[in-house]
Amino acid sequence: MDVFAVLFTQPWRAGTGVIIGLAGLVVFYNGLAGTHGLLRRRTALVERLKGWQHVLFGLTLLGLAISWALGSRLFLFLTLGIAFTELREASAIISAMKHERRRRVDAGATPP
């Protein structure tokens, strides 16, 4: 049994796609203009990177909704592959920056 064929042919597919798409728009907007927003002034770099993570996750949800609506396996795999790579990279950078900040505080230097 092909899982994708079953999922892409269900009658509740359209409603689920709309819900995932709306959730993606909300997360995307929160990443741009929310508390960690990329468009906010006077925001620390770590906070901007968290905003970038929110933007990426929102775009991932939008990509999932589009692939769900179109029934496209290729678009699904492209969305998940790009999202996994970018989110992992952003998480590694945030983790390194937090670790560096802790190391500076432990060494007695003032954090930026």
Describe what is shown at a glance.
The chain is 79% helix and 0% strand. It has 112 residues and is mostly helical.
Descriptive report:
By secondary structure, this protein is mostly helical. The chain has one domain. The protein has helices at about 5-10, 15-35, 45-70, 75-105. The protein is elongated, with a radius of gyration of 18 Å. The relative contact order is 0.12.
Q: What attributes does this structure have?
A:
mainly alpha; elongated; 112 residues; single chain
- How do the SSEs run, as a string of H and E? HHHH
SS field, number of helical segments: 4
Uncertain regions: pLDDT < 50 for 5+ in a row? none
Structurally, the number of domains stands at: 1
Structural class: mainly alpha
Q: Strand content of the residues, in percent?
A: under 5%
Apparent shape: elongated
The residue-averaged pLDDT reads 84
Number of strands: 0
